[in-house]
Amino acid sequence: APIGVFDSGVGGLTVAREIMRQLPDERMVYFGDTARLPYGTKSKETVIRFSRQIVRFLKTKNVKAIVVACNTATAQALEELRKESDIPVIGVIDAAARVASTVTRNDRIGVVGTTGTIESGMYTRVLKEYNPRVQVYGKACPLLVSLVEEGWLHDPVTEEVISRYLKDLEYKSIDTLILGCTHYPLLRSAFRKVAGEDVTLVNPAYEVAVELKEILDEKKLSCDGEVDQAGKKYEFFVSDAAEKFCDFANSILPYDIE
Ligand code: DGN
Known about the structure:
The chain is α/β, with parallel strands linked by helices. The chain has eleven helices and nine strands. α1 links the parallel β1 and β2. It starts with a strand and ends in a 6-residue tail after the last helix.
């Protein structure tokens, strides 16, 4: 059976890409809610409602586990989705928080993400569960999603915007920064440049793929290597604007999708 992955739109492809890299034998069904994005500015109730509908859709594809690739949906809806589900539902926040709480040396961690993610306080809660001593400094960076979708990944304007957002975090002398939005791993080099070499950048997309592998192994759900001839290896569904989705997907995935 495939792994279900969903996001508010294209951003979750950074997570899909990591799953392709780290679990190359697994099949995957991806859903991007392009008709209703962004989730980052919507209320908790709305994000829960949308996420439930998507989970229902993914279950019609007989998925064996679901990855909530969207940081905002993880922050707002993961708890509800888990309560209602009989298969593993894995969010992007937990694994990243666990890693960040162990790599920090001075217990000062920054988190950047959408307004919804930062205001939910979920990163702070989970980080403190792993390490009660940490000080967590969150900063919402709403402009960055648009800049990524515009393709301005290596652009002085994007660097300037990041630099403005990180100003607040600078004097907190953080040594670890969580890139807590699906789009931000694509801005890794810009973040690196602005934050400096001494700050460890944590990528939730990478960490959730590591966690997914652990969970599949533990629950004996890993692919046994047999190829299912009936299904395509990777399937992508969107609620709107499939062409735009394809363009973005083809710019970041290791192969072209139809
Ligand atoms: N996928 C969203 C997230 O990771 O928070 C970002 C896109 C959005 O809905 N604003």
